[in-house]
Write a structure and sequence with these properties.
2 domains; 6 helices
């Protein structure tokens, strides 16, 4: 190929010498190169944006699916409890919501005392583990109503413990405020 090109150039040398490139050739080449570079930058940004949007869409879909599965499972569990005893199912649902609210309240109040909150959390984690064990037993229990009552008693006990924890935290916060006021 080199030889063919070399041969072509030597044979047509005189034709090359008589033809001159246009005066603005290099300016046109530079301008064209600049135009090509700009879209490449825009293309890269578009590709990056498309990737980010794809990741966001996948994350959204997975999150939505997870939330749907969570609430569907929660609704099915409630329906299972309701089939056994509607009154107990309503009571279990109410206590479950109250426990969640109390936990949130204790967490907010305990922000000033993380060590004590850690101790409180250990106690609640054990009670929650017992509750989860009861939920698992519910599926295979020969006496589902008795198991549901045990679950409700566990939730009631969690409420009592959380109430005591709130009282302790309120007392500590009140004592700290009084101590600060006395110092002033």
């Amino acid at each position: 190929m080199k030889r063919d090109l070399k041969k072509f150039v030597t044979e047509n040398r005189t034709a090359f010498d008589h033809v001159h490139p246009p005066k603005d050739l290099w300016q046109r080449i530079a301008k064209e190169l600049e135009e090509r570079e700009k879209p490449m930058g825009q293309v890269a940004v578009r590709k990056m944006l498309i990737r980010v949007l794809k990741v966001a869409a996948v994350t959204f879909l997975i999150g939505t699916a997870g939330i749907m599965v969570y609430f569907y499972g929660k609704k099915n569990a409630y329906d299972d409890y309701r089939r056994i005893n509607p009154d107990l199912a309503a009571e279990q649902q109410t206590y479950s919501q109250l426990v969640t609210q109390k936990k949130d309240s204790v967490a907010v109040i305990a922000t000033n005392n993380p060590i004590l909150y850690g101790e409180f959390s250990k106690t609640l984690d054990q009670m929650e583990a017992n509750y989860e064990m009861l939920k698992q037993e519910f599926a295979n229990s020969p006496n589902k109503e008795l198991t549901l009552e045990a679950m409700i008693r566990n939730l009631q006990t969690q409420m009592e413990v959380l109430s005591q924890q709130m009282e302790i935290l309120n007392y500590i916060n009140k004592s700290e405020k009084q101590t600060k006021n006395e110092q002033i």
